[in-house]
Write a structure and sequence with these properties.
heterodimer, A: mainly alpha, B: alpha/beta, 4-stranded antiparallel sheet, 40% helix, globular
Chain lengths: 300, 235
């Protein structure tokens, strides 16, 4: 039972990180109908920004918690700037082009950013300082769940609640939903579409950067390639839950995290990806729009 | 109030509007009639800035608006009810109405306008927490018109408000259109395929064919015009 609980919480932690990334995929898809393949790289850049900031701040001898917050802020700002710029440079000029063009542009952007970080930071794994101290009150449960996992779960939960409130109740949130549902009509009531799209990229990138920081601190090392793998997994989670749906992305991420965690724990870590992608295939066969996806009926 | 002078609009290489000139005075109901594909919807989309014209000028209240984007044009006081209603399907009726007032900040007046709309269409009040996509066609048309009114427009553009509705509902919608024009002093530019209906509510009318204006007269005169009768009234 304890082993089960450990795997359950481990899967949830994994799922949280996937969710932070998957939200960016699903929100961008919802608004402009594009799979932003460069999104994983935003997450990777967030992790690197956090590493550089943390290294500098450690020299000044700040305490780990302050470093965590400041590194997180730096990662969010830097990644948002990247997300914003990528949209302006690689997607906006192609907004009225056939759907395949921005997709190829996105793949190009992803390869470009990976190689740019590869050249700047080499391909070696870099040690990432553990910024989340072991909490004393966690001692009795330390064999089931670690302190950094608790922090990951808590931060993700807070991020989800804030995002939900933003989308449900704020002016920009309503504008985002309206744009996702009917872009031309949103323009006709006076929504500035460019601003909505930019905000979407900024929010998605911020969440990915937070994910990058948390997982880097949890695992303890990063390199230029982490964005690709995490990006593919999070994308899978978004499709699993129903791409375009925000609760779907979160649910899909947890389902994927648990599947991987239990497969690793009860069978073998070699089969982790086999189970994850078999699940994807199964769900797409029986629910092509994903778990919470709306099957689109195109009206003529 | 609104002046279109020699407007030419293209979709890629295809010219949809060929030298269109239209004039609308404050307080009027002006209709634009014509067959499918004549360019009526494009005319409205050009006014609203969704498909900006390639050449020509559009002046609204004495100021050029053809270089403005859609957001600025709404802010100037032109709202559109597009063809097919375009209700935000997963927003509630209330949220759809809120979206209509998107650019407004005068909270108190927004509330007063809401009251006025619920008085005009009590059914929308009953369904205020329902998603827009679950409404019937007639209710959606009422919501679409109400959403446009929430912007407090000086000029209301209506694209085929009768499309796909039952005759009784159409009658009701057109009574409301007249009422909006009269009691709120909102100028109305009405695009319709149903020429008979449109010419009965309008003061003046334009006839459009293949992207050009072919006739322009008072609605009463167009109703008895032999060409209009033959081509659009089916008499």
């Amino acid at each position: 039972m304890e082993y089960f609980l450990e795997l359950f919480l481990g899967g949830m932690t994994r799922g949280s990180i996937y969710a932070l990334i998957a939200l960016g995929y699903t929100m961008v898809y919802g608004i402009i109908g594009l799979i932003n393949f460069a999104h994983g790289e935003i997450y990777m850049i967030g992790a690197f920004t956090a590493l550089i900031t943390a290294s500098v701040l450690t020299i000044f001898g700040l305490n780990p918690f302050a470093i965590l917050v400041l590194a997180g802020l730096a990662a969010v700002v830097y990644s948002s700037a990247y997300g914003f710029t990528i949209e302006k440079v690689a997607y906006k000029p192609l907004r009225n082009a056939p759907r395949l063009s921005p997709l190829i542009s996105a793949i190009g952007m992803s390869i470009f950013l990976q190689n740019y970080v590869l050249l700047a930071q080499t391909s070696d794994f870099m040690p990432f300082p553990n910024l989340i101290p072991e909490f004393a009150f966690m001692e009795p449960w330390a064999h089931i769940i670690g302190s950094s996992e608790i922090v990951i779960l808590a931060v993700t939960a807070v991020a989800m609640v804030l995002l939900t409130l933003l989308i449900k109740f704020t002016r920009i949130g309503k504008a985002m939903r309206a744009t996702a549902q009917d872009r031309k009509m949103a323009m006709l009531v006076g929504v500035n579409i460019n601003r909505v799209i930019s905000v979407t990229f900024i929010i998605g990138s911020s969440l990915a950067a937070i994910g990058g920081l948390l997982i880097a601190s949890h695992i303890g090392q990063i390199n230029f390639y982490i964005g690709f793998i995490a990006g593919i997994k999070a994308f899978t989670a978004a499709v699993l839950g129903g791409i375009g749906s925000i609760p779907g992305a979160v649910l899909g991420s947890f389902v994927l995290g648990w599947t991987e965690s239990f497969a690793t724990g009860y069978i073998s870590s070699d089969y982790e990806d086999v189970f994850a992608f078999s699940l994807l295939v199964l769900i797409l066969i029986f629910r092509p729009a994903g778990i919470l996806g709306r099957s689109e009926s195109k009206k003529v | 109030m609104l002046d279109l002078v020699n407007i030419q609009t293209y979709y890629g290489n295809i010219q949809a509007l060929k030298n269109i000139s239209i004039h609308i005075d404050e307080g009027e109901i002006v209709t634009l009639i014509g067959a499918n594909g004549a360019g009526k919807t494009t005319t409205l989309m050009s006014i609203s800035g969704i498909v900006p014209p390639k050449s020509g000028t559009i002046t609204f209240l004495g100021e050029p608006i053809h270089d403005l984007n859609a957001e600025q044009i709404v802010a100037r006081g032109i709202s559109q009810v597009p063809e097919g209603r375009h209700i935000f399907p997963y927003l509630t009726v209330m949220e759809n109405l809120d979206m209509g007032a998107f650019l407004r900040t005068d909270k108190r007046n927004i509330r007063a306008d809401l009251e006025m709309i619920f008085e005009m269409f009590p059914i929308l009040s009953d369904r205020r927490h329902q998603e827009g996509g679950t409404l019937s066609g007639g209710e959606q048309q009422m919501l679409a018109i109400s959403r446009a009114l929430m912007a407090r427009p000086r000029l209301l553009l209506l694209d085929e408000p009768s499309l796909g509705l039952a005759p009784l509902i159409i009658k009701k919608i057109f009574i409301i259109i007249k009422e909006i024009n009269r009691t709120r002093n909102t100028t109305i530019f009405l695009v319709e395929q149903n020429a008979n209906l449109a010419l009965h509510v309008a003061d003046r009318g334009y006839v459009m064919e293949n992207g050009s204006i072919t006739m322009e007269d008072t609605a009463a005169a167009l109703l008895v015009n032999e060409d209009v009768k033959r081509s659009y009234l089916g008499i």
